[in-house]
Amino acid sequence: MATNIPAGLKYSKSDEWVRVEGNDLVIGITDFAQDALGDIVYLDLPKVGAQLAPGASFGVIESVKASSDLFAPVGGEVMAINTDLESNQEPINKDPYGAGWLIRIRPNGDEEELLDAAAYAAYCDERAH
């Protein structure tokens, strides 16, 4: 399986990616996760202002195949959610690292162990076989 794993992002073992943008972190699901889920049909995200703990569920994503919890790779306050995805989840399938981003948080310093692109690619390969 040819999974897109951009360098420069950090990754969690629960298949979320993290991108630093100024003082905030943008979080979404990886290409590996969206490929495993298939076509996304429903998304439940937290409210702006919600406090997230690292490793805690922050929402649910559903596809035609399965439903999966979303897990916060870092702790912090939700500063924004991608409201474009409320009525159309297609960007998650087409562009999970761009238009398909899920939430923006202001981190509080608590984080899960995050992987770089090479380590995440190796982790995906392990699970694919």
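That was protein one. Protein two is written in the same sequence-then-structure order:
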Amino acid sequence: MVIIRRIPSYVFLVMIGIMALIFVCPTAQAQNWMAMPPYNTLWPLWSPALSPVDPTTGLPTPIVTSLTSTTVLPVQPGLTWNPALKNPWLLYNTPLGLAYYDPLLGINLWPPTGFLTGSGVPKPLTLPANYATLPITSSTWITTYVPLGNSALIAYLKTIAPAGPPAVPGPPPVPVFLTPTAII
């Protein structure tokens, strides 16, 4: 003979709560990217150097709030991605404003021309519905292209260095760069 006992309601509520945590927490932790205005390129939430954890919320918080031509990065390179492309761009501060490194095109000023309308107004990207959970950038890509981007920026800075008096020769000071390991 089987005896069926009634499960107390508090046990049922605790079980529901545990199941909700199991299903909700992995989703919240799986958010790898955040859309960055005004263009909707994605900023890496998975990189502590670029999105440190806010001690009050416990959530990764991007070090910048938007990516405009006048954005100043507190660390560089930054990283942004148009998910229509295979790989992201590295972002750098320059005397002419924010710039990005594209492995095919080198250093260019931000934003890319395709991100602007004919009148120069930002043209936001249409992001896929799952943009927040798209995979993180490959560590192989980062370890390969961050040093190349850093070198390209140094070469670029030498080309835009203003001609100074003879007592101040040489290129502008070399900026401090994040290492690939710090970004990963």
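The CA atoms of residues 27 and 133 lie 8 Å apart. Keep this in mind for the problem set.
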